[in-house]
Amino acid sequence: EAALTNEEALTVQAVAFCVREYFEGSNFEFRSFAGDYPEKNDADGNHCTYMDHFMQVFAPGVSAQIKNVAYLAWQAADGWIGKYEDPKTLGIRTTEHLHYKEGGHVSFHDDPDSVYTIVASLRRPEEYIGGELLVADWEEAEMQRVFKGPRLSAVVFVSEELLHAVGSVTGGRRDTFATELWVHDDVPYGLNGRPSPGAWSSFLETWNVKDINENDSNENKNGPQSEL
């Protein structure tokens, strides 16, 4: 059974297109994984469209389905229940449309501060050459599991405990829909990108201060409200 329906996949692609076309700034970037290693190729990274709040507003059913996919994996995976959080109790940290042109790839890395990562394929395997998703354990990095599933399929893994990479795309274009779940609430509008726990705490602190000030201002302006 597919992780997404064809209509849901088309919705993801349509929202990603609209974000790139009409919302400038930090919603779209080439995200490099080369870091401080100049020997790495400049193509080491992906073109990332951040769609977090856009998906929650315009396609909440897709966001709910991705959580359900993670929940099914949590139920089916040996040893996950009781060890890791129930995905349905977690918030969406980031929702990303990722595309890799010819030569694009990503080196091994983890997703720190997230609990689960869900990667859904938006293209058929025959539409691009290479670009396999590689997953490996920290202690046995040479023992790689290779995934190149059909369009609409998804891979779910524990974000911090497994390394993952994308092999070089040598032809065509690879498109995926990636979501990370974390222990905090869904990331709201105004906190773009993939926020760190510190950025999340600062955002909440700022929001709470503004909310309290607004309530105080309204009370001072309107006077005490009678209870009915």
Walk me through this protein's architecture.
This protein is an alpha+beta fold. It has helices at residues 6-22, 52-58, 60-76, 197-222, and strands spanning 28-32, 45-50, 91-100, 106-109, 116-121, 128-130, 133-137, 145-147, 154-158, 162-166, 169-172, 174-182. The strands form three sheets. The protein has a six-stranded antiparallel β-sheet, covered by helices on one side. A hairpin with a 7-residue loop joins strand 7 (133-137) and strand 8. Helix 2 packs across helix 3.
Topology:
Blueprint: H1 6-22, E1 28-32, E2 45-50, H2 52-58, H3 60-76, E3 91-100, E4 106-109, E5 116-121, E6 128-130, E7 133-137, E8 145-147, E9 154-158, E10 162-166, E11 169-172, E12 174-182, H4 197-222
Antiparallel strand pairs: 1-2, 2-3, 3-12, 4-10, 5-9, 5-12, 6-11, 7-8, 7-10
Gist of the model:
This protein has helices spanning 6-22, 52-58, 60-76, 197-222; strands at residues 28-32, 45-50, 91-100, 106-109, 116-121, 128-130, 133-137, 145-147, 154-158, 162-166, 169-172, 174-182. With 228 residues, the protein is of the alpha+beta class.
The gross shape turns out to be: globular
| Integer average pLDDT | 84
Largest sheet: 6 strands, antiparallel
Helix content: 25-40%
Intertermini distance? 54 Å
Instruction: Quickly give the structural class.
Output: alpha+beta
DSSP summary, beta strand count:
12
